[in-house]
Every structure is written in C-alpha cells, then in structure tokens.
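Below: protein 1.
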Amino acid sequence: MAALLALIVITVTPAHAEPRIVGGVVVDNPDEAPWMVALTLSSGYQFCGGALVGSKLVATAAHCVYGRAPGSISVVGGRLDLRTDGGSTSVVAKYQVVEGYSTPSRGKDIALLTLAEPMPYAPLPVAATAGVYAGGNVGVVYGWGRQAENDTNKSPLLHKASIPIMADEQCAAAYARFDAQAMFCAGYPEGGVDSCVDDSGGPFVVDGRLAGIVSWGIGCARPNTPGVYTRVMTYLT
C-alpha cells in the first residue's frame, strides 16, 4: 500500500495556482488506464486528475485540493468519457499533503486522498528506482484538460501524450525555481506536446509506474518551456 511521507492535513484557503493534453490522442481502451480518476465538484465539474495507488487511495497534486473541504471533492473512476455516468464515484473522506507545501513552483506538490468507498480498479504501482527520471526516458501523461493553451473548452474524453523527460540541467536553465529533489521536467525543445489546464494532478507514467504528477509550468506546449511534474518517488513509497 502506498504511503506519503511527512504529512499534515491542510484546511486553509489555497493560493491561486494556474495548472498546466496538447498534441495527444484519445484513450479508447478502458483497460489501458484503469487507475485513472477525475476529481470533480458536487456539480460534476472536473477540475483535476489523479491516479489510484490503492483501492481507497488517490495520488494527485496538492494544489488541486489545498484548502478544499474533503467532502466537497468527488473522485470518479472507470469513466473515459465524462459525459457518461459509468464507472464508480466516491467522496473524499480525508486527504494529506506534504508538510511545508505552499505553491506548485516551490515543490512538494502532491496529496494523498483517502476515499470513503473503495474503487474496484487495479491501482497504479509507484516508481521504485530513480532511473525512471533519466533524461530521454519517455513517459505518458493522462488528462481531461484543454488541448491548447488558449482553449476555452476542455475535452470530456480522456487523452494521453508521450513526452520525453528532460535532463535536470536543462530544466534548471528553463526555470530558476527548479528543485531536482521535488520536481522533474518533460517536454520537446520545439514544444507542441504538453499537459495543460485541468490536467493538473494527473499521472505521468513511465514503464507502467507512477513517476510524476502534473504540477506547473508556463503556458502549454511552448518551445523550450517544458511541463514540470512532481517527482513522486521523493514523497510516495
């Protein structure tokens, strides 16, 4: 079972955070990502993604839930098309974020949600070796977010995109606040493929394991401006 290190429950109001799939394809096989979940409000509005790491545990970005009452968040699993009513839904019973989290650009952007009801889907194993973060390794990011930086509408269909991990030195050159212990970057020099708004909290999967969580960046799919992901192995075992 997954466990998050150095946790406290957060109940304060969140600071504004602009999360950041562009250049991807629709996921049409429900067996490809059974662990993928959507975070929604009671109205059904999807605002973030997440991944089951246990039958009642969801890993997502801290900025997705920071300051929200647990009971105001619902988790939807087993539903590739959010316009349908298939799958399973559970309210969040409680959640934890890493102690010291403040904003995505300062790192520690990860939360572990505990569901009131278990989900009947296979969980996503957590990455177990630091080698998954080597520059050039290709991961797959999943989400229901916008498909272009200036889109006003997001997709109700789950999308995915394959993106190479960038060497830490390159990421540090792009972002002055880059912290190699807390984060990693993924992107193409020419841009064009990236996570985007409302993909936040979604999983970045390398070799069938959870390596990252969509966290932050500048715009979506811009050249020389990679997406920044939470380095899950630092916080989740």
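Below: protein 2.
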Amino acid sequence: MGTKHEQILSFIESLSVGNKISVRQIAKELNVSEGTAYRAIKEAENEGLVSTIERVGTIRIERKQKENFERLTFAEVISIVDGQVLGGREGLYKTLNRFVIGAMKLDAMMRYTEKDSLLIVGNRIKAHELAIQAGAAVLITGGFDTEEHVKKLADEKELPIMSTSYDTFTVAAMINRAIYDQLIKKEIVLVGDIYTPFEDAYYLKAKDRLERWYQFNEETTHSRYPVVDENNRVTGMVTSKDVIGKEKSSLIEKVMTKNPMTVQTKTSLAYAAHMMVWEGIEIMPVVDTHHKLTGLISRQDVLKALQYIQRQPQIGETIDDIVSSRLEIGEESNNKTIYHAEITPQMTNQLGTLSYGVFTSIVTESSSRLLRHYKKGDLVVENISIYFIKPVQLESKLEVRPRILEVGRKFAKVDVEVFNDRTLVGKALLMAQLIDR
C-alpha cells in the first residue's frame, strides 16, 4: 500500500475516460481529507490525467503521449477561447484532429467537416446540426446560442457544442497559437525521455556494506551511486571521495553523503545539464514527488542527448531560434567579431521596442558563437549582467560586438556591446561554463 496521495492518483487513473470527479467525492470514497484530495487532483491535472473546466468541473481525460501533443482536447479548447459548453459535455475529453472555419456555403462546409474535427462557425443552426451528425464538435463564435434539439443531439452523440464571445478569426488564431505552443513544448526534451529506469539502475541500500560499492564500480566504471531506504526513498549518495580510507565492511549509511541533488522526470534536460556540469556530477538520481528513486541519469547521456537535439530540425520557432536565424556575421578577424541583426515584430515588446528577453538571447547567442570559434565546444550560461539597455525601434539594424575578456579550460567571461546607428544601446557581461565536445 502506498501513501494516501499515491492511492488517490491510482484511483483517478483507474477511472474510465470521461468520468467526472470532485474533491468531496474523492475525500468521501477514499476516506481522506479534502486537502489531500485537492492536492492529488492538482497533481493528476499536471500529469495530464484530468482536466478542470469552469462551469463544468473536473473530468478524467486520455493521458497525452508526447508525440500527440499537437492534438488538443475539446476541454482545452474551451479553456483557450474562454467559452461555455452548451451540450455534449461527456465528449470534452476527446481530441480534435483538425478544425474547419465555417465561412462558406453549407454543402462546401460539410465536405470538409469530418469525424473528430471541430467546426468553428457563427449563428448557423443547420450547420451546427449537420456537423454533430457527421461526428464533429462545434464551436459557435460571436456569443450565439443554438437550438435545444441540437443540444440534445450533441448529448446523444457525446460531442461538445460550445460557445465563445470571440469572433471566428480570433478563435482560429487562438487555437493555432495553442497548437504551436504545444509543438514547441513537444520539442523540449525532459529527463524522463532519456533516463535509465529504476529496474536497470544501479543503487545501494542504506544497510549494504561498502564492498557492494566496489562491486558496482568494477561492473559499471561509474563512481557515484544513490542510496535508498526500505521505502526506496533517496537518502544519500556514495562517491569515490566517500570511500577513501573506509573499511569495505563499513555500512553504506555511515559513509554516504546525505541530501544529494536530484531531478525529476519532468525536469528539462537543459536544466539537468547545467546542474551536472556546474557541480561536476557524473550520475544524478531521478526521483518522483515523494523522493522515491525512479531511475538514474548520467552526464554522458545528457551531453549526447543535447548534441543530438542540436542536429534536429525544430517544428516550432522559439525566441532563441528567431535570434539565431537573424544574427548574421558581418566582420571577423583575430581581434574582433561583429554580428548584425534586424529587429523584427517577433523581437519587440508591447511598446514596439526590442524586448529585454530578446536582448538577453542576442547576448547569449553572440557569445556562444564567438566562443565556439575560438574553442570547439558549447557553453552553459552561469550569469548574465545587463548594465543598461536603451529603447530600440522595430526594423532597426543592430551591430553586436562580443569580446572575450577571460577564457580558460572550463570558464569564460565575455563582454557584449550592442550598437544602433553607431550609438551604444546595450551592454552586458556574460559568464559561462565551457563544455568540451
């Protein structure tokens, strides 16, 4: 038997897709406090097991696979467009394969409206009815309602018919943006994508003898192993430094280092890499929310994965991608390297000037390129100090001048100056750890 929290998660996972749940119901059925039930439901929501919709409640949904992230559930669509459900609530957990904008004649519209799609249309009752009959959900724009017989049909077919106050064009743009964000999220590699699972991991128990460490060391050539208690919770780490001068008959719990650094499966690979490189950690335990060991991740695995990612084409374009594609080399010599960039609409803030975040990306990208030119390797940013940044207008042409102040085998310091029309508009200092390829 696990903890009450784990029991609630298991119970939620056992429910059939489409089931409605509540804090009070969970608390009553499993004999737990409402606070415990609430926390477990929130975690289930984070794990993609349930979805909470205003005026509808919390329902069990299909857990999304990473490769299907570009598909939204109708429940997510409701949240995106701040809409309300008029009928067919039982189908909110379903995913849509595509959406169709109903801005054409009825017969043409229905040729494109297929099963599992979403018809976005205004106040056209016949279109609402035909779409539901064809197996598609309906999103009515402009805040309009529909007739009762259509709502009844939606309930029978378990297909949502929804309404939003936004116009058709805005709704399509909002859904497109949500799918785009999902695609970018899909490209972010997590620790859970590459870690070695618990069944294949090498770990020590607190009551083991030190000779067990030596046995693992011969088998794997690694020198760090997590230590777990009787409940498989990580309590320490044993490294080569810990075993120096100790008898092989010593208990592991007597020589281990307590409270080691850990990551979770949902930790991003980039963050794990930063921790491991900066702290010089070779192996790191992967734990769940209750600090139970679920696997291991090694520095070699992380670096290999990061190098693999760099060679892959990205589907979604992030701010870093935009900066990287716009930053062009202008002048290069032994003494200096100058880059040029033009400010595009995506690089501006709400005032139409260069955003602070994009300026940070320009500093990082130009420094990274300069260091790659002198030292064949990558960097992990430790700190960026921005001394000042002046407003820079849309379509301005920037001249970026990174300059190495200090560089060693593992550390670098770069000064970056940014000019617009020969006027200094930004200045920053970047400090980074270097990773050899």
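The longest strand covers residues 423-436.
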